[in-house]
Every structure is written in structure tokens, then in C-alpha cells.
Specification:
The protein has 118 residues and is mainly β. 0% of the residues lie in helices and 55% in strands.
């Protein structure tokens, strides 16, 4: 059973930086897209950034220019570098591995808390 383990969440002041990591405990064979989602208090989960198997990236408008998603396929790991953090970035951040071939399956991390103080 593959599990995703996240790390890097913390309390940081506005303007600061954090780097989130998410590693799979085992190998996932096939084509895998990866992404980061977040769920602010009292709100629904939303997509923050995604990266396809060939490295194409996509960002929510609210984080463009501040966050960078990257992946290390050899380590089955996805990263989210977050700079110029704002209080509205406060949320639980979840990583997602989406296996799209040869079958469809979603894997989720347990979530890591990011709190940005003003």
C-alpha cells in the first residue's frame, strides 16, 4: 500500500518562505501527475499547483509568481516552494499523486499545517 508522507508545514511570519515535501512510501508505476491542494479554515479544498509527468506546471492565480512546484521522479517526491507568504495562505496543505496510466487512482497525503502570521 503506497502512502504519501508530507513534511515542511510550520508557523511563519508574513513575507517568509517554506518548502513542503511529499514522498511516496513505495513505487507507483505508470504515468503520475502530482499536485498540491490546500484547505483554508471553513473553506473547501482548492488546487494550488500541479505538475504533469512531463513537467508542465499549473498554478492558482493567487499563488502565481510566489509558489513553485517541482518533482523528483527518482525519489517519488513532489515539492512546493512557497515564498512571500501571506496570511491568506494559511491552510492545511495536501499533496496528491494522480495515476492516469495504466489505471486511474488517486493518492493523498495526510495534510500539513501552514500558518502565516501577520
Amino acid at each position: 500500500q503506497v502512502q504519501l508522507v508530507e513534511s515542511g508545514g510550520d508557523l511563519v511570519q508574513a513575507g517568509g518562505s517554506l518548502r513542503l515535501s511529499c514522498a511516496a512510501s513505495g513505487s507507483i508505476f505508470g504515468v503520475v501527475h502530482m499536485g498540491w491542494y490546500r484547505q483554508p479554515p471553513g473553506n473547501q479544498r482548492e488546487l494550488v499547483a500541479s505538475i504533469t509527468s512531463d513537467g508542465s506546471t499549473n498554478y492558482a492565480d493567487s499563488v502565481k509568481g510566489r509558489f513553485t512546484i517541482s518533482r523528483d521522479n527518482a525519489k517519488n517526491t513532489v515539492y512546493l516552494q512557497m515564498n512571500s507568504l501571506k496570511p491568506e495562505d494559511t491552510a492545511v496543505y495536501y499533496c496528491n499523486f494522480q495515476l492516469v496510466w495504466p489505471t486511474l487512482r488517486d493518492y493523498w497525503g495526510q495534510g500539513t499545517q501552514v500558518t502565516v502570521s501577520s
